[in-house]
Amino acid sequence: TMPSIFSYQSAEVDWCEGNFERSAVIAEYYNTVTTVSTTVHVLPSRAPQASRALLTELPLLPAGLFSTYFHMTLSYVGQLLDELSILWTLAVAYSFWLPKTYFPRCIKSRYDPEGHCVAGSEGRVGTMTSMVAILRSIALAVSCRCNDKRVHRMAAVMVLWWVLAISSWISDRWLCGLWQALSFPYLHSFWHVLIAISLLYCFPLVIYFDVRNEMPSFKPKLGYWPSDSWPIVVPYINMEEPLKQC
User: Fold this and answer.
1) Tens-digit pLDDT profile for residues 37-91
2) Closest Cα partner for 67 from 90, 33, 24?
3) Quick check: 197 and 203 in contact, CB under 8 A?
4) 235 forms bridges with which residues in the sheet?
5) More confident residue, 133 or 241
6) 240 forms bridges with which residues in the sheet?
7) How many whole angstroms separate alpha carbon 138 and alpha carbon 92?
8) DSSP assignment of 217-229, as one string?
9) What angle do CA 68, 172, 5 make, to 5 degrees?
10) Which of 22, 50, 88, 118 can pair with 45 through a Cys bridge, CB separation 3.0 to 4.6 Å?
11) DSSP 8-state assignment for residue 21
12) CA gap 42, 200 in Å, rounded
């Protein structure tokens, strides 16, 4: 008989961590526990775009919950929910934060109903392409149109954490035998934490350039809480007085 799609270990993917080694209920213990990092995400901001940032972050909550369910059960339904929630999160980010310069000519405003429809459809079809476009726009803005050292620092730190996260994911997936031989099959759990840290820097950076591009009368400023000198900080956006228009 066909196994139930809700059954434990019915998924097509099984990560490197051993199953049911630390719990009789949780299949991948560390992969399950570390998904909390994707559900707890704080973005302190006084920027006008903060409400849109919150809407972008909201899909991260079900994505984290579905990831928890997937790693806990390794069920086929859990796998589908985990993957689809990530795609929809990317689609929402694409809809809200794609720079206007990439809009089709028929879309005049981000807030047009047809604009959201087109952006959402394109996001569902090509989410990875959208992320490349966003990262490319950030890189171009940082290298060509911004002299703020804080921005350069935040972009560099974001990319560093992102590279570490991707490296952990790839290593766990393709070098599992090596890590099992070294008795350290936990790199996928590192992926959860590292990608959450990367997003912590990514969101303020995207908001910074969105304010600069779409609200030129305001001057956004990046900051770090509690202090720039601390080794572990939380980045945020602050708004200075509106610039005088000549």
Assistant:
1) 876 654 444 444 455 555 556 667 888 889 999 999 999 999 999 998 888 887 7
2) 33
3) no
4) 224
5) 241
6) 219
7) 18
8) TSEEEEEEES-TT
9) 40
10) 50
11) S
12) 8
Contact 219, 241 (CB under 8 A): yes
Pairing of strands 234-240, 219-225: antiparallel
| Count of C-beta atoms within a 10 Å radius of residue 37 | 18
Known binding positions: 14-15, 17, 19, 28, 71, 188, 192
- Rounded to 10 degrees, the C-alpha dihedral 53/224/156/91 comes to -10
Tokens 């959201």 correspond to 116
pLDDT band with cut points at 50, 70 and 90 for residue 190: very high
Closest CA to 96 of 45, 50, 42, 56: 56
Residue ranges for the binding site for Ca(2+)? 14-15, 17, 19, 28
The enclosing H or E element of 237 equals strand 234-240
Buried-exposed string 11-25: b where 16+ CB fall within 10 A, e elsewhere: beeebbbeeeeeeee
Q: How far apart are the first and last CA of the chain?
A: 75
Residues annotated within a binding site for Zn(2+):
71, 188, 192
Q: Which residues of 151-171 are buried (b: 16+ CB within 10 A; e: fewer)?
A: beebbebbbebbebbeebbeb
Rounded-to-integer distance, Cα 147 and Cα 144, Å: 8
